[in-house]
Amino acid sequence: MNYKYAINLLAIVTVILWLIPVIWVAINSIKPTKVINAPIPTFYSFTPTMGHYTELFERFQFDRAIFNSLIT
């Protein structure tokens, strides 16, 4: 096996392994809470919701925290 090919393959595998949890979190962020906490995970059959983001900004004042982080 060529050294350059092995390095490229290692880089691709590393990126894929890094992206899997990021994609999983992104998908779960738009799933309803009942679907996330279900005993049997569903990957396709759910209705996307932005409720978690709405709660983040309304309940926890996330916009203020981001603003404070930007000015300091």
From TrEMBL:
Keyword vocabulary terms for this entry: Membrane, Transmembrane, Transmembrane helix
An example Gene Ontology CC term for this record: membrane
UniProt cross-references to InterPro entries, sorted A to Z: MetI-like_sf (IPR035906)
Compartments, record wording: Membrane
Membrane topology of this protein: Multi-pass membrane protein
Regions that span the bilayer: 6-27
Regions annotated as coiled coil: none
Location (main, coarse): membrane
Protein name as it appears in the record: ABC transmembrane type-1 domain-containing protein
Organism, as annotated: marine metagenome
